Batch of 2 targets.
Target 1
Amino acid sequence: MGLVVQKFGGTSVADATKIHRAARRAIKTKLDGNRVVMVVSAMGHTTDHLLALAKQITHNPPHRELDVLLTTGEQVSIALMAMAIAEAGERAISLTAAQVGLVTDSVHSRARIKHISKERIEAELQAERIVIVAGFQGIDPVGEITTLGRGASDTTAVALAAVLGADHCEIYTDVDGIYSANPRLVPQARKMDQISYDEMLEMASLGAEVMHSRAIEFGKKYSVPIHVRSSFTDNPGTMIVESTPGMEDVVVRGATLKEDLATVVFTDIPNEPGVAARIFSRIADNHIVVDDIMQNVHSGGTRATIGFSMLADDLPAIRNIAEILQREIHFGGAEITEGVSKVSVIGIGMRSHSGVAQKMFEALAESNINIRHISTSEIVISCIINSTDGQKALLKLHNAFALDTLPISVN
Ligand code: ASP
Ligand code: MG
């Protein structure tokens, strides 16, 4: 007998009709001969509304209490889903994270899963129930309520699929799969039949908003095939799977645009051991995530510039840190550039094919787009450009790499 985990996002359970529709899908899967575990998000924009409510009370809500508040959204959905399934004549039970035994660390608002107990879920499946688990939430080792970060119901679902040894994990959402680029920006973007975990991880962190990154990490670590598909049609979506040698024939699988970035360059820094460590530990202490780091050495090797890109949201914090660092290590200044974006091309085929960077730079040059910085990894090439060129660059690259056509093998 198969075991399937089905996750329904907020838009897929936004009202009573949609809850009934999701319930019917789970029931059908059960009647097809599978054991079914559902993971549901809060209805529609509930989580945003709860956050806004908290902000009406205080500008700085304690994270512990925020977690108590936000987890109510998923508790509403699981109860309604269980009622919908019962109404359709099937057996179901809703379970919170505490009832399951989904234990996390104690970092409120971005906790990490440490352990998931199988006993309760397996007993309920044994009793032929559809088990409906609240996404996004956990409890810490002393029973405090935690949440796993925005969008993390995906992570709950894939982690459960891993622990329970599910055949696969289905992510039901309001788009019908993963696209070669954001279809809102690139109308010709193509839905992919499959993508590797590594490519999907890069796409997610480089701006594709479809899935929570940690869910993909779980999928990769425990080899859980993930099927991202629409809850409103029966069409197959995109399978996120382990890469096969054939997948490397496609050199570039997708393109992304990450907007609202800034770059910061510290100039005229002493080029001595420990300076970079000091700068970046200050930044990390403030929980700022920096992206690409670049360093240049000049003045006969005695001075350097160190720069990085980051989310523009973190600029106020960076300005404070720059002032503190200025007192500690005396450098020239902090040059801050706002209004930049990062355009990237992604594909595991880059591991075995060359010429991608050249083609990317030529395409951008043809469109008269200036490149501010370049960074590369094994399967990604990224360029920082002016935000005003963002969409044009994405369209151009999508076109240059023919991402709108069926994947072509490189001979
Ligand atoms: N309800 C949570 C959120 O809106 C978790 C999720 O939907 O995945 O972020
Ligand atoms: Mg989501």
Target 2
Amino acid sequence: MTERTLILVKPDGYRRKKMGEILKRVEEKGYDIVAADLRTVSKELLDQHYNELVDKPFYPGLVEYMTSGPILAIVAQGDSVVQGWRTLLGNTQPSKAAPGTIRGDLARDWPGDEVRNIAHGSDSVESAEREIALWFPNLSNN
Ligand code: DAT
Ligand code: MG
């Protein structure tokens, strides 16, 4: 089924010049890019985006990470893109992410750091629609 998902290239991806590599993987899988925008984001946006995580002990570190530089926000569309993109991303923790996945190939755990896993993908069709409405309020639903 055709779905949409929100992809974010996080500030470490921007800093390490991996935007092109990540976009390449979106395109190689055959997904369509419907919107893309480079921006720096506010804590207020992140509080909504990560509404299930705001009370976690690691949340302040996550906000610091996500506000440390530009983010490339992308809406991608395709057959089963939500789960498909999660599979391409790999495990949340780079050291546990399989080789061949984006996080397995391009991200690393650094001692003492919070998890810096280079890219985001919505975890369900419902989250995807919620996140797309938050990041791209002007994008039509059709
Ligand atoms: P994912 O990004 O794989 O969907 P998530 O939604 O559970 O993972 O968490 C969102 C982000 O929060 C994740 O990309 C990195 C950070 N994070 C999650 N669990 C963490 C932890 N135990 N310690 C530090 N950061 C964490
Ligand atoms: Mg998540």
